[in-house]
Amino acid sequence: MSRHTRPAAILLGLFAISPLLVACPSSPSCSGSQRPYNNVCLDTVAITYIECTKGRGFDLTTELSGKLGGTFKVIADASVEAAYKQTQEENTVVALQIVSDCLKIAESSADTAANRSAAEESRQRADLIRQQVEETAHIEIAPNQARAGQSVLVSGTSFYPEETVAIYVHATLVTQIKVDGQGAFSATITVPKNALPGFQTAITVTGETSAKSAQAPFEALQ
Fold first, then answer.
1. pLDDT digits (tens, 9 = 90+) for 207-222
2. Among 5, 66, 87, 221, which one is least packed by beta carbons within 10 Å?
3. Rounded to whole angstroms, how far apart are CA atoms 102 and 96?
4. What digits encode the pLDDT tens for the residues 105-123?
5. Domain 138-221, what fold?
């Protein structure tokens, strides 16, 4: 090989191996009880938890968009929110059940009091949301008779946490409000002008995400 072709051959060789260097990133250097996982440093309990959910069909490495950094509490809290989001999209509590089951395992295997507490708190949150999703929505009104233009207090429970609900008097949409984190709300509405006097009807509340619906008898007075 001539002196002129040798540098070109070296450059070609470097270009050939550079994709391999990019494809094989080095693992992060972790300290203490943390270990490398998906190019981030995580506590052992976090890795155990993520692998548990992944093995049961709810892959947090995908659901959290690869953002797995932070403490175990951050991951546990984010996983509950991701499971709830899937519940809203699919109207099923499977993801919440997986998260709850794996958090229970994490709780029993946690190596520190902080991680044990984080697992317990997130598990309780997941169980509460699952219970709210599975329960039948219920509303109460007071009074159950009123004239057009008068006020009626409407309260409800067991809707999806923080979803928007629509309140109807008969077929008329009166207002839309956001329920709280417990799936409950309380609102004062005004009986619409088109409410027919003496007409036996109902006030209906429907969740826009959950499609849960609840009714209470109502009569518009003359």
1. 998 889 999 999 989 7
2. 5
3. 10
4. 999 999 899 999 999 999 9
5. Immunoglobulin-like (2.60.40)
Query: For 67-79, how does the pLDDT look when each residue is reduced to its tens digit (9 = 90+)?
Result: 777 789 999 999 9
Q: How far apart are CA 33 and CA 151, in angstroms?
A: 60
Residue 128 structure tokens: 């509460």
So where are the chain's domains?
A: 25-134, 138-221
Of 53, 75, 171, the residue nearest 119 (C-alpha): 75
**165 DSSP β-pair partners:** 177, 207
Q: Where are the beta strands (DSSP E) in 81-195?
A: 138-142, 145-147, 151-157, 164-169, 172-178, 185-190
Question: What residues have CB less than 8 Å from 119, skipping those under 6 apart?
Answer: 45, 49, 72, 76, 103, 104, 106, 107, 110
Bridge partner residues of 206 (DSSP):
166, 213
Output the six-digit token pair for 146. Answer: 């009123």
CA-angle at 199, arms to 169 and 218, nearest 5°? 45
Q: Report which secondary-structure segment, H or E, holds 97.
A: helix 94-109
